[in-house]
Amino acid sequence: MTTWITICDGCKRSDWDARGANQTDGDVLAQAIETCATKTPVNTRRVSCTMGCERACNVIIQGIDDNGLSKIGYSLGSFDGTAEDAQAITDFATLHATSPTGQVPFRTWPVGVKGHFVSRHLPLPAPIEAEKA
Fold it and tell me: Pfam families attached here (predicted)?
């Protein structure tokens, strides 16, 4: 099974200009997630935009199972870009990686991801199902 955290490194929180930041909040979060993920079975990648600008610090968690079929995926946002955020995101992605379907029971969610879910992405149909459609 493979799970990926896709991180928007272009995200800027709404107070970015007022803070005079010289590094995007998404880049800060991406660096922290990459550090956390080195000790896990989770892969990371960066993109410049996930089109969730109003929420800033967006990530997408998605993966495939041992048969090469997609699993349930999730979009999360409205993070501050802290090390704690990165750890919670990585911990959730690790639970996603060990789940055969990608579904993670609510009772096991890290506290730091609760309230940050934007959407759930249903798995793509299996190839044989797609042919019937």
Answer: DUF1636
Q: Which residue(s) pair with 6 in the sheet?
A: 45, 60
Joined together, the tokens standing for residue 104 give: 């993670």
CATH class assigned to 2-132: alpha beta
pLDDT in tens, 1-35: 799 999 999 988 988 889 988 999 999 999 999 99
The sheet with strand 42-47 has its strands ordered as 42-47, 2-8, 59-64, 73-76, 117-121
pTM: 0.91
Task: Answer positive or negative: Cα dihedral of 122, 127, 132, 133.
Answer: positive
How far is 66 from 89, CA to CA, in rounded Å?
A: 22
What distance in Å separates the CA atoms of residue 124 and residue 85, rounded to the nearest whole number? 28
Q: Which residues contact 32 (CB under 8 A, 6 or more apart)?
A: 81, 82, 83, 85, 86, 87
CA distance linking residue 12 with residue 4, whole number of Å: 22
Give residue limits of the domains in the chain. 2-132
The residue among 3, 7, 12 whose CA lies nearest residue 35 is 7
